[in-house]
TrEMBL record:
Binding site for Zn(2+): H681, C683, E705, C766
Residues annotated for L-homocysteine binding in this entry: I471, G472, S473, E524, D639
CDD domains, alphabetized: CIMS_C_terminal_like, CIMS_N_terminal_like
Gene name in the database record: metE
The protein's name: 5-methyltetrahydropteroyltriglutamate--homocysteine methyltransferase
EC numbers: 2.1.1.14
Cofactor list: Zn(2+)
Alphabetically ordered keywords of this record: Amino-acid biosynthesis, Metal-binding, Methionine biosynthesis, Methyltransferase, Repeat, Transferase, Zinc
Superkingdom assignment: Bacteria
Domain Cobalamin-independent methionine synthase MetE N-terminal: 13-94, 124-348
Length: 799
């Protein structure tokens, strides 16, 4: 096929679409199911309505081939575990022990457990949610970040005894729904190599077990799923292999070659499209280019732009389909049409068929800018959410197929909007830029080394061995949410709202004192979100009203938009922290979100280096830290849960990123006295490869997620010789279960095996805002009891 005919055949598609619905209908239905207010049939109907609405919206916009199988009740990796039968026996047993009936929303008649035992009644919905959330007596699957995004996936648990068994019923059902609407549809599955690379050894399996050794067992399962999808009417199936954009060993690359040789030579299968995103495929590109599959989907945005040169270097994809991800699926800025068309024009000579797509699933962006009424209309024209990105993809496909004359009006409007943003006063504040340019190395260093600071802090704070604390937030009750809504609607005046906040702080402080917690928090009742709360008080940020994005399960956040230069007009947290401290003799932590997380959990500007933006945010937060200290706050926590998440996917980018990221944290905290204790917090990420950076933060205390990973991070820190104080979490707050004293004590003793008692803190994994008061009270009381018991057993300890 010539370049002209390839262009004429250009089609528009996407990898996936937001699941929640315009008003987060899926979240509400699932949480209603958990609470017993929504039945399985009603939940199933809500989900079907949302899928149908998504597909019809895509088709109406001009998308030629809609994705299926990307819709999930909780997580698409969890769905893959169900599809291949990797269901831990403990979750089946926990639900089987419950005599209440369980509706089989996800019927998998042939499913087998990871241990190989047949499940006679399939996979009940309650088993599915037990894997995700746990039950009172059973821990859930571990949860961690999906590559360098803020989306969380459920980590598969595998071992040498794992027996896979195919069940494609969920994937076939969604494909059948779409085909029934008269749409061309492409099922999207997590590919077998990425699935195994994302997995971990199951509990009780040797830590050195490599799940990739299970590939030969897994491939027949995928072959069966592919055959089922073909029989159901699939012409194409997409297999996502994002794990291949990371640095991979020769063994992993050989596994990819073997997997797609075997799947590609099957006779009973649809055409295969292997997809990657988030970065360059690098050394995996020639492996997949040579594989006997019919197409590749590649990302050509951001760090993945190098795929263009790499694809040319391997000779392109002769005779194959290329789905070109030229519209950024992870950020909210409008596409640069002329640049994208230039990329697409080059790609026409490198493949038989070139189609236009998003760089990745649109799951990572909000649904529709049309719902935003509080952002300046001109600024809204700079933004593209999922629906607008769909329009961009269709426009580019039309321009590629018919020439730029067919989209002349769209090109002119795009040029005008890009120029409007570039010339806006919002994006350039001379005072902010001058201050950032004047920063010196001294500004980012504490005045005394850690050993001297630690002694000063011990004398000042007078804390016991194994001091207890929490991470910051306490439950955001229905009453708090109602008060906030009433304030926005004018039903509650500012004075009444502030009294409601004051009362909540008093209650939170009183509970902590009674429970015996050593370092208190005010509970953050005035805060809507740990990033949004600060973004709304900093210049240069935009806040959305309806820009919801899934973080995990039914947890949705509204990432603010970092649109311009950043400064802090006035103190943001001092008032409420000072008020809380006035109620108690115990230290109350000041609570801030760190500069890297302020970037990672926002939609960042793409018109300057991230390090420059981080420095601006750090200087604004430095002012807040200094004001907190001046107001009498002796313990200040600057949370950086996104430090690992934002690490570039390839090692070549690590050093440069960590240099500016750690500098930004030190710039935030470097101006305080030696006896002011600086804490930081991280959660739900793999920390092993940033241990040196954690030390470079120069925080006095770090708290980390550790409960689901069974204190693995404590051992990693000890092995690395980490010299400062550590609080590995003993309470998994992302599960509704309450750990008893014995469980908390066991985890604490594991922590003590790695970290000396004089440097070990006791705390939950993360903040408590998503939990309810009954479970929080019980869990924290158990946590304090465990700390006292262990403390009393130590030499010199006092229970």
């Amino acid at each position: 096929m010539t370049s002209r005919s390839a262009a004429a055949a250009a089609r528009a598609t996407v990898h996936g679409y937001p699941r929640q619905g315009p008003n987060r209908e899926l979240k509400k239905a699932i949480e209603g199911y958990w609470k017993g207010r929504v039945g399985a049939d009603a939940l199933r109907a809500t989900a079907a309505d949302l899928r149908r609405g998504n597909w019809q919206q895509l088709a109406a916009a001009g998308v030629h081939e809609v994705p299926t199988g990307d819709f999930s009740y909780y997580d698409h990796v969890l769905d893959t575990s169900v599809m291949v039968g990797a269901i831990p026996a403990r979750h089946r047993a926990a639900v089987a022990a419950d005599p209440s009936p369980s509706s089989r929303l996800l019927p998998h008649s042939r499913l087998r457990s990871s241990g190989g035992t047949p499940m006679s009644r399939g996979c009940p919905l309650d088993v599915y949610f037990a894997m995700a959330r746990g039950t009172q007596g059973v821990a859930p699957l571990e949860m961690t970040k999906w590559f360098d995004t803020n989306y969380h996936y459920l980590v598969p648990e595998l071992g040498p005894d794992t027996v896979f068994a195919a069940d494609s019923s969920q994937q076939v059902a969604q494909l059948t729904e779409a085909l029934g609407l008269g749409l061309a549809a492409r099922p999207v599955l997590v590919g077998p190599v990425s699935y195994l690379l994302l997995a971990k050894p199951a509990p009780g399996v040797a830590a050195g077990f490599d799940p990739l050794t299970l590939l030969d067992r897994l491939l027949p399962v995928y072959a069966e799923v592919l055959a089922d999808l073909r029989a159901a009417g699939a012409h194409w199936v997409q297999l996502d292999e994002p794990a291949l954009v990371q640095d991979r060993s020769p063994a992993a690359l050989n596994a990819a070659a073997r997997a797609y040789r075997d799947l590609g030579t099957l006779t009973d299968r649809p055409q295969l499209l292997v997809a990657s995103y988030f970065d360059r495929l690098g050394e995996a590109l020639p492996v997949l280019a040579k594989a006997p599959v019919e197409g590749l989907a590649l990302d050509f945005t951001g760090p993945a732009a190098g795929n263009l040169q790499d694809l040319a270097a391997v000779g392109g994809l002769p005779g194959k389909r290329l789905v070109a991800g030229v519209v950024n699926g992870r950020n909210v800025w409008i596409n640069h049409y002329e640049q994208s068309l230039a990329t697409l024009g080059t790609l026409l000579g490198l493949a038989e068929q070139v189609d236009v797509s998003s760089s990745c699933s649109l799951l990572h962006v909000p649904l529709d800018t049309g719902a935003e009424r509080d952002i300046d209309p001109q600024i809204v024209r700079w933004l593209a959410f999922a629906r607008q990105k769909t329009t961009e993809i269709v426009t580019l496909a039309r321009g590629l197929a018919r020439g730029t004359g067919a989209i002349a009006a769209e090109l002119a409007a795009n040029r005008a909007d890009l120029a409007s943003r570039a010339g806006s006063a919002l994006t350039h504040d001379p005072a902010v830029r001058a201050r950032a340019a004047a920063v010196t190395d001294t500004d980012g260093r504490r005045s005394r080394p850690y050993a001297e600071r630690s002694a000063a802090q011990r004398a000042h704070l007078r804390l016991p061995l194994l001091p207890t604390t929490t991470i910051g937030s306490f439950p955001q009750t229905a009453g708090l949410r109602t008060a906030r809504a009433d304030l926005r609607a004018g039903r509650l005046d500012a004075e009444g709202y502030e009294e409601r906040i004051s009362a909540e702080i008093r209650e939170v402080l009183a509970f902590q004192e009674k429970a015996g917690i050593d370092v208190l928090v005010h509970g953050e009742p005035e805060r809507n979100d740990m990033v949004q709360y600060f973004a709304e008080q900093l210049t240069g940020y935009l806040a959305t009203q309806h820009g919801w994005v899934q973080s995990y399960g039914t947890r949705y956040v509204r990432p603010p938009i970092l649109a311009g230069d950043i400064s802090r007009p006035e103190p943001m947290t001092v008032r409420w922290t000072r008020y809380a401290q006035s109620l108690t003799e115990r230290p109350v932590k000041g609570m801030l979100t760190g500069p890297v997380t302020m970037l990672a959990w926002s939609f960042v500007r793409d018109d300057q280096p991230l390090g420059d933006t981080a420095r601006q945010v750090a200087l604004a937060l430095r002012d807040e830290v200094n004001d907190l200290e001046a107001a009498g706050t002796s313990v200040i926590q600057v949370d950086e849960p996104a430090l690992r998440e934002t690490l570039p996917l390839r090692a070549a980018g690590h050093a440069a990123y960590l240099a500016w990221a750690t500098e930004a944290f030190r710039l935030t905290t470097g101006g305080v006295r030696p006896d002011t204790q600086i804490h930081t917090h991280m959660c739900y990420a793999e920390f092993g490869d940033i241990l040196r950076a954690i030390e470079d933060l120069d925080a006095d205390v770090i708290s980390l997620e550790a409960a689901r990973s069974h204190m693995q991070v404590a051992s990693e820190l000890a092995t690395a010789g980490y010299p400062r104080e550590v609080g590995p979490g003993v309470y998994d707050i992302h599960s509704p279960r309450v750990p008893d004293v014995a469980e908390a004590t066991g985890l604490l003793r594991k922590g003590l095996a790695a970290i000396p008692a004089e440097r070990l803190w006791v705390n939950p994994d993360c903040g408590l805002k998503t939990r309810g008061w009954p479970e929080v009270r019980a869990a924290l009381e158990n946590l304090v009891t465990a700390a006292r018991e262990v403390r009393g057993s130590l030499p010199g300890g006092v229970s």
